[in-house]
Automatic annotation (TrEMBL):
Keywords: Oxidoreductase. Residues 11-477 form the Aldehyde dehydrogenase domain. InterPro entries: Ald_DH/histidinol_DH (IPR016161), Ald_DH_C (IPR016163), Ald_DH_N (IPR016162), Aldehyde_DH_dom (IPR015590). The keyword Oxidoreductase applies. It comes from Streptomyces nigra. The keyword Oxidoreductase applies. This is Aldehyde dehydrogenase family protein.
Amino acid sequence: MNQRLFIGGTWTEPEGGHYEVVDPATEATVGAAPEATRAQVADACTAAREAFGPWSRTAPEERAAILARAADLIRERLVPYAELAQAETGATTGTARAMQVGVAAARFRRYARVEPAEWPIAPQINEAGPMGKAGVVGALAIRQPVGVIACISSYNNPWANAAGKIAPALAMGNTVVVKPAPQDPLSVYRMAEVLEAAGAPPGVVNVVSGSSVEVGEALVASPDVDMVSFTGSTAVGQRIAEVCGRDMRRQLMELGGKGAALVLDDADVDSAVSGIGTTFSFYSGQICTAPTRVLAQRPVYDRLVERLAAYARRLKVGDPREPDTVVGPVISRAHRDRVESYIELGRKEGAVVVAGGERPPVDRGFYVPPTLLSDCTNDMRVAREEIFGPVVTVTPFDDEEEGIALANDSDYGLIDYVWSADVARAFRVARRLRAGGVGVNTVARNMEAPFGGFKKSGFGRDVGSYALHAYSEVQAIVWPG
């Protein structure tokens, strides 16, 4: 079936035709995605602008009820939605169900909880002066919706990433125009169907897609857009920021990462291996939070490399639909070629390939094996640039100060990690890392903790209540007491 665009509450034929969505595991066609024109993107933005007034004035409890119904519908349809997500992304069955569709349902459920949008501020006593008589001045801070939000989501998790933008934006009274990644847009259209069925009024949610960069460019440049929420590469984020900067529009940017994992000399090496190993297994390394850049103190360096290599070799690479598969494909042929080019670059730079490195013997699909590069230095491109695949580099260091310096010597600063048996030491090191988040002896996330990056990993914070702040403006109202 040819997918249609969702504009102003109407399923609309794309004027730009359709393009194929390819299953990265089998190279079969999953479906036909719509190619929006610039005019249709403009129509979506106009629809969102017209819907903003009524939606922003809707009671928060009514908005929350729609989000709650959406969460229920996603849960009811979890299996077929996960099958589609798997076909589009190549995720394993467990990942597609729990971490993609399951997380999306949880995010809609989270923002179905109404939170206060007003905060009293302590009265201030003003002395008589040029501004008037002496008196007491009261104040109230109120969170107001921003307006029309352009939500541009990433390909690695079309369900969770899009839901993490749409749900808090709608909860705050904004309307959205969603532009999913071209590789896997069909899942986001299912999300639009759910929101329509849950009672979202026409124009509150709009979805436009396309394989051409013109779709995203038209959306970002639209005069009807008040804010852009983007997840993707730093290079694209920089271009979006330039456009938004000209009109002083709000932005929320979750960009690239090159997570440093400091393994100190007193660390539990097996725990570190399990955490770092998620780079291989979780989305096949296509995740910006992955601990891809390991910095190991010399007393544990050899042992860590040996155990990481053994761990990588044990992981089954193959069809993500098979229950024992751990590492599925990367998203496309072009991306597989890119990841492989980095592995070859690592060899040329002097890194040692101690696991992986060779394309698996499969007839179809875009597979890259878990690959471990040892004997790296921090000036190698493989240790500095985001590869976005199942590739881990390991660099030795002598003392704690050197490890911290190496970790901070990066253009990125999204999430770093520290492994140490001494928790006080680990926290001390964590406080000195220039990253938006630090995992201490874990790669787990707390889904109420603020999420975002330092440096070229972006700006702004979302997740939990921080997302409600991200998708709102704060207004102050003052009055004489």
